[in-house]
Specification:
The chain is of the alpha/beta class and 938 residues long. It is built from 42 helices and 14 strands. Keywords: Repeat, Signal, TPR repeat.
């Protein structure tokens, strides 16, 4: 849907101008003109063409041959031809029309619209220079005619000029003209629906330049702005919703993408009175989101509904129909129906090879799908042939380090490894080359859509390395596989924070960003050619420009100090790094979701053990069974069988013995395992003993490390925030959305939070305690606070998950809103502060939790505080009962003041709550005391 919005904005629906002329007996003609202008070519191409033909026939009945009125209505026919993709007949018609309308009194608007249509056709046919010349001519025409400025057709011309500028890589000019068009449109009364389409285009401009976060923010702002003018349920808003959904899909946020995609197809179907090929295409997009989210049967149900509609209106071999079948193929593979998927892949391959020119990306994409289908049923010969063909096609159409080519090479290596089709030394050597290129791409453009789409390759390479005994390579690759978009965002924040104190670094970052933007523009040209291959496209020239750009960036990076490099680059740990810091009894574990399997690396000072846990191991299901202990509708009894089964799945044989021997476990885990207190696993087959009962567990986020510096007792300063109520924030939050206001207002009070803060103050002992409660617990108060090294910084409030509120793209702590602060304290805001606390206590619900959405929670608030300088964080995996939170946090601080290491202090605090040895009633429900874990900075 992203590309479609640009076509709409520079195409058929936007060249209409209300004629200022009149003629005798025009009643029927004017009615047809009104009907045509209200028609939607996207919804009903045949109906659109029929009205155009009727309007032209009526004009010919009323006017003599050669009259400009006939030419003006023939323009409708040309538009209808363009709408149905018949570009050559449309161009011939408009070329005949333009001379008739040129200079005709009262027909200037029609002449301008004819020129606009010609520019659109030229753009579509690849003559971007010709299209740009026409659009610049039209913009100059409006600039010289004050009486025509500020009208809808002026805005249309500016929008089309923006699209032409984008085709020429002139992003800033495109954004400027697009902003002008939107400004004019919003000033009109009534506001034209085109404003929503132009806003959708603005999203595309940012995305195509690699500025993904800007694209997402622009989409959200466009929905608010255009929706405020037109109504959020206006059919024209569908493009904005669809583009937002498409971008969220492309950066692997399928759950977040579902809501806007659903809004898009529901709006179209409401306006159309039922489904059409546009809404069915969006339903296909929704099915893709379901596939990404693992809901494969639901995806097939959506496709069963959508595909026949697309076939009926566009044909079974149309691009949209083929995309629907691609989506079905992926769902079939996931459901274990590989043979059926392989047969479908061969059908799609035959169709696309017959229809598409050499160099079209879908020829390679279809071979990818055939390779994956064959891989799923262990048909190694077919999988290798298809994967090798995809690599060959991309090698001819893309630059050598393009993410799509590197993905193809990585998957081919995976096929050759699984099928044992190539010597191990060759596999490992090429895998290292591909890995180096992938990581260099990611370092150049952290957080970009390109960096995100190459992410699966890290898991495939980690698997190849692990299977072939290259343990350290596998360990590095799994660290890259575990990285998230939020990791990248916080890394960018860290480099920006460093730049504030270092003018030289700040200057370097500005230049580096300029070079990265230029690089993304070059890559966008290659990507655009992949959709519409041009035999004259200079791939070698663009590739050389990319190589030169990379050299310039490398030269800048070579001048960085080690400290600057650490703030700018992601540096995975080596196995040797961890072993060098370990002590007797220390065991480090990293467990990473690498796609359809898990990679487990476990080591102590003398051993490294790596295990690939296959897709047949029900890791996610077992985690869900264990987390069910926190379900308020359940009995709160831990599923001991699931606990021991999960341990056995993750740690077979020698690895299990290594973990059982640990006195202190350092654990780094992502995916569903990031949402589970690790101490709930049981090394006993009967599930009688839990890891937390015999081992001290330290959780890591980001780069895994071994033992940190020796623990020094926490300082005697407490700064604490709490006693925040949701209801007072309702009015301010209503500005964000009504559902947000309701969510905030409905949050329960935390009656024990004030008591917890007071008890923490007592636990600190003779030191100072600053309690900021209720209206005083604000973001500004935190920014102004002086947090001395080693202090305890505590929050007894609600934790909100990413996506829990409209527009909340990060997890957050709820504080009291004040001034310009919304009361939602997010990781990106925390990371910009100076908070060198010895311990941060997040005595709030879900502060380390993952949710059903796509954005990570665990790496969020915790990493935000680490970025701000904190040494360790005590956080929760699910909703907390505030009296238990008080007992655990207070006992942990007391234990630390008694010189216990923090993780050991928490372990003993949990034991005290279970036994009631802290002077309060014993509580032996794991749902209440297992919720907390201790995280330490790397």
């Amino acid at each position: 849907m992203i590309k479609a919005a640009v076509a709409l904005a520079s195409g058929i629906g936007l060249f209409l101008g209300a004629p200022a002329h009149a003629a005798p007996d025009r009643t029927r003609l004017d009615a047809l003109i009104t009907q045509f202008e209200a028609a939607d070519a996207n919804s009903d191409v045949e109906g659109y063409r029929k009205i155009a033909d009727q309007t032209l026939a009526e004009a010919r009945r009323l006017y003599p041959a050669g009259h400009p009125e006939i030419a003006a209505r023939a323009l409708y026919v040309a538009q209808a031809l363009a709408a149905s993709g018949e570009m050559d007949p449309a161009k011939a018609e408009v070329d005949r029309i333009i001379p008739v309308l040129a200079g005709a009194q009262g027909y200037k608007a029609d002449w301008r619209n004819a020129l606009s249509l010609r520019a659109y056709i030229l753009n579509f046919k690849g003559d971007h220079a010709g299209a740009l010349a026409i659009n610049e001519q039209l913009a100059a025409e409006y600039a010289s005619d004050p009486s025509s400025q500020g009208i809808r057709d002026h805005a249309v011309t500016l929008s089309n000029l923006a699209a032409s500028y984008l085709e020429h890589g002139r992003l800033d000019d495109a954004l400027a003209r697009n902003a002008e068009a939107i400004r004019i449109g919003l000033a009109l009364d009534p506001v034209p629906q085109d404003v929503a389409i132009w806003s959708a285009n603005r999203v595309v401009y940012f995305y195509s330049a690699g500025r993904t976060e800007d694209a997402i923010v622009t989409a959200q702002e466009g929905i608010a702005q255009a929706g405020g003018a037109l109504g959020t349920d206006h059919p024209a808003m569908a493009n904005l919703y669809a583009n937002l959904g498409a971008i969220l899909m492309r950066i692997n946020r399928p759950h977040d993408a579902m809501a806007p995609i659903r809004q898009a197809y529901e709006l179209i179907e409401k306006a159309n009175g039922g489904p059409n090929q546009n809404s069915a295409t969006m339903r296909t997009q929704f099915a893709q989101a379901l596939v990404r989210a693992g809901q494969h049967k639901d995806a097939l149900a959506f496709l069963d509904y959508a595909t026949p509609i697309i076939d009926a209106q566009l044909g079974a071999q149309s691009d949209r129909s083929l995309v629907a079948r691609d989506t079905r193929l992926v769902a079939l593979i996931a459901l274990g129906q590989g043979a059926q998927a392989e047969a479908l892949a061969r059908e799609l391959l035959a169709v696309r090879d017959a229809r598409l020119p050499d160099g079209h990306r879908d020829r390679a994409n279809t071979r990818d799908n055939l390779a994956k289908a064959a891989f799923s049923i262990e048909n190694w010969a077919t999988a290798r042939d298809a994967a090798a063909q995809a690599v060959d096609l991309r090698s001819k159409a893309l630059s050598p380090d393009h993410p799509d080519l590197l993905l193809s090479r990585a998957f081919l290596l995976r096929v050759e490894d699984r099928g044992d089709l190539r010597p191990a030394t060759e596999l490992v050597a090429e895998a290292r080359q591909v890995f180096e290129a992938l990581t260099l791409n990611a370092q150049l453009a952290r957080g970009s859509a390109q960096a995100e789409r190459q992410r699966p390759a890290y898991g495939w390479l980690a698997e190849v390395f692990a299977r072939r005994g290259a343990a350290d390579d596998a360990f590095r690759a799994q660290q890259w596989a575990a990285r998230t978009a939020l990791d990248d965002m916080l890394a960018i924040a860290a480099s920006e924070l460093s730049a504030k104190a270092d003018p030289q670094l700040a200057s370097l970052l500005v230049r580096r960003r300029e070079l990265v933007a230029a690089r993304q523009g070059l890559e966008a040209r290659i990507d655009a050619n992949g959709g519409r291959p041009d035999p004259k496209f200079d791939l070698a020239g663009v590739s050389n420009d990319l190589a030169g750009n990379r050299s310039e960036i490398a030269a800048l990076d070579a001048g960085l100090t080690p400290e600057q490099r650490n703030s700018l680059m992601f540096a995975p740990a080596s196995l040797e790094d961890i072993q060098a810091t370990g002590e007797r009894g220390d065991v480090s574990i990293m467990i990473t979701d690498i796609g359809d399997s898990w990679l487990v690396t476990a080591l102590d000072a003398g051993r490294v053990l790596q295990t690939l846990v296959g897709a047949d191991a029900p890791v996610d299901a077992l985690v869900a069974q264990l987390r069910a202990v926190a379900d308020p509708t359940g009995d709160g009894v831990l599923d001991r069988a699931a606990s021991s089964q999960l341990f056995a799945a993750l740690f077979p044989g020698e690895t299990a013995a290594l973990v059982r021997s640990a006195r202190q476990l350092y654990v780094t885990a992502n995916g569903s395992l990031g949402s589970l207190p690790f101490g709930l696993l049981s090394a006993d087959r009967a599930g009688r003993g839990l890891l937390m009962e015999k081992s001290t567990i330290v959780r890591r986020v980001g780069v895994p490390r071994g033992r940190t510096a020796a623990f020094a007792p926490t300082g005697n300063t407490l700064i604490a925030f709490g006693g925040v109520k949701g209801a007072p924030a309702r009015t301010l939050m209503a500005m964000r959305s009504a559902s947000t206001a309701r969510t905030i207002a409905d949050l329960p009070d935390l009656p024990d939070s004030r008591r917890e803060l007071a008890a923490l103050g007592q636990a600190i002992g003779t030191g100072s305690a600053q309690l900021l409660v209720g209206d005083d617990a604000t973001e500004e108060a935190l920014r102004r606070a002086t947090v001395p090294p080693g202090a305890v910084l505590a929050f007894a409030t609600h934790g909100l998950l990413s996506g829990e509120l409209d527009g909340l793209s990060e997890p957050a702590l709820l504080l009291s809103p004040a001034g310009n602060d919304d009361g939602l304290l997010k990781p990106s805001e925390i990371g910009a502060m100076n908070l060198p606390a010895g311990l941060v206590i997040l005595s709030a619900c879900n502060t380390a939790a993952t949710s059903s959405t796509d954005r990570p929670q665990l790496a969020g608030l915790v990493q935000g505080f680490f970025l701000a300088g904190a040494e360790r964080v005590l956080a929760s995996h699910w909703p907390v009962r505030d009296d238990v939170a008080r007992r655990l946090s207070v006992s942990t601080v007391r234990g630390m003041n008694n010189r216990l290491a923090p993780a050991e202090a928490l372990r003993r605090a949990i034991g005290q709550v279970r036994k009631g040895s802290d002077g309060e009633p014993a509580i032996d429900k794991p749902a209440l005391w297992a919720v907390f874990e201790l995280f330490e900075a790397n």
